[in-house]
Amino acid sequence: MDRTMAELVVRARDLWKSYDGRADVLCGVDLDVAALEAILVFGPNGSGKTTLLSLLGGLDVPSRGSVAIGGKEISRLKESDLAKIRLHDVGFVFQTHNLIDDLTVEENVALPLRLARKPADARVADLLAAFQLTRLATRRPKEISVGEAQRVAVARALANGPKVILADEPTAALDGKGSAAVLAAFELARTSFRTALVVASHDAAVPGLAATAYHLENGTLSRRA
After folding, report:
1. Would the pTM count as exceeding 0.90?
2. Does 6 map to a domain?
C-alpha cells in the first residue's frame, strides 16, 4: 500500500534529471523513506546515485517530478528555503569527509549548530561520546585517521537532529576495519539518534548494513527482493 506523505521522511515521485540537454541521468524514479528506515541504493559508477541523493537532499532540483521531506514539497523552493531544509532536516556524508582542516574535531561537529544558532556544547559532547571521538576532540582532521574523520562526518551530520542522513559512497575510501566502524556509526545514528538513512554504494551487499536494497542503473531504480 502506498504510504501518505505524512508517514514518510522522504517521498520522491517521478524524478527525472538531465543536464544541458544530454541523456537523462534519472528516468522516473520513485522512492519512499520511512522514519528510522535504512535504504541502500547500489549501482555501478555513473549510474546516477549521486544525482539521486542530490535531489533527495535539496542540493539540486529535478528536471521533472517532486521530492518531499517530512511532508513538505521541496522541489520548487527558492534557494534560501532549501538551505534551511539542508541545515535542519538533512544530514550529508560524502565519500571524503569534507571536514574543515582549520577546525578541531569538536568545532567541525559543532559547526551546523553554530550556523543554526543553537546551543552546541552539550549536543557536541553527546555526539563525540556516542561515536567514541571524545579523545580526538581537540585534534584537527589531518591529525586523525581517514576512518576516524569519516565518523566525525557522521557525528556532524547528526548535529541538528536531521530526519534523514544521505550518504554517498561513505566507505569507498576505507579499509575493512574503517568501513565496519563507519557502518556501525550509521546504525547507531539510526537507532540511538532516530534518523533514517539512505546510503549509496557500488557494493550490492554493504557489510553490516541491514537495509532495504534498491538497484539503480541506466537511470531506473528497482527494488531487490
Report:
1. yes
2. no
